[in-house]
Amino acid sequence: MILSDKADAARSSSQAPAVHWAQLLRLPQTWGVIVGRSLTDPVWFFIADWFAIYLVARGIRIEQGLLVFWIPFIAADLGNFFGGGISSWLIRLGWPVGKARKTVVVFGGLGMGLLACTVFTSNPLALAALFGFSTFAYASFSTMVLVFPSDLFPSRSVATVSGMAGTGAGLGTIVSTVLIGYVADHYSFEPILIGASLIPLVAMVLVHVLVRNSKACDRGLVQRI
After folding, report:
1. CATH of the domain at 174
2. How many C-beta neighbours within 10 Å does residue 11 have?
């Protein structure tokens, strides 16, 4: 009976008319997905593009940096599996999809906040651990944001919402790259790291506020989670 209900829901979702992008932008759930990616992807690209430069700026020798440089990237790979695995496990326990996904979002937002602690140490292993846990948390958060469109929207709207979120992430990354270069040149990496730890917390809160069941669910524009 449950399988039949799921199949009926999938068929009705695939047969639902496509929703215009302008109408999707009027939905808070759409903005929850866009904000989630737009505010967290720039943090990842900061680490991916600037981590080696940051290590040198902290006085860490090249040979020391090479020993720890790979850790944040391996951690991010593991975070992808963790985020998807934990949320799926919670759903199998009977949690609503939205609650399971948002629990991982909380972990991700708080975990990325550890970037602020890097301003207090120059130890290569400590920096690698802090950056590694932050990228692990980022990947968990990011996995939830990537899956939200298929959780929330009928199948014909999933690609549109995902595309808008990707556009927001790209624009955010471009702006942040320019700002990071300017601040690093004129000041230091400390303001950047503090900002990179606070912005995901803002994203976490906004995702919780915007991604919710609303009247749009009754109109078939958004699926209940």
Report:
1. 1.20.1250.20
2. 10
